[in-house]
Amino acid sequence: FEKRSYPDCCDSVGGWSHSERLAYTSASFLTFCESLLRKELAELEMIKSREALRCEAEKRRMESEAEMTRMMMQTQLQIASFVEGMNAGF
């Protein structure tokens, strides 16, 4: 966004003409709208960043859960093999 220049506030008589007031009001409103737009865009970027971080954390949590499940299954297989070996000996 570019900086807007405002019209000179005074005409030759010392007051504002109707067109100058409209131009100043329009420029002020445009500046205000651009400011709101920049704020909204910044908020959207923060939301996108936060969502990306949340997705990455969820991915790590699921990977960790899958690893724990794999370790439990491996342990259960070892226990089953041990019990089977004990039963074969009797």
Overview of the molecule:
The chain has 90 residues and is mainly α. The chain has one helix at residues 18-89. It is rod-shaped, with a radius of gyration of 35 Å.
Given helix and strand content, the structural type is: mainly alpha
Could you report the average pLDDT, rounded to the nearest whole number? 88
Strand content: under 5%
Q: For the record, give the distance between the C-alpha atoms at the N and C termini, rounded to a whole number.
A: 85 Å
Number of helices: 1
Provide the succession of SSEs.
Answer: H
Computed Rg:
35 Å
Helical content band:
over 70%
List keywords for this structure.
single chain; 90 residues; mainly alpha; 1 helix; 80% helix; rod-shaped
Please write out the topology:
Layout: H1 18-89
Short description:
This protein is an all-alpha fold and 90 residues long.
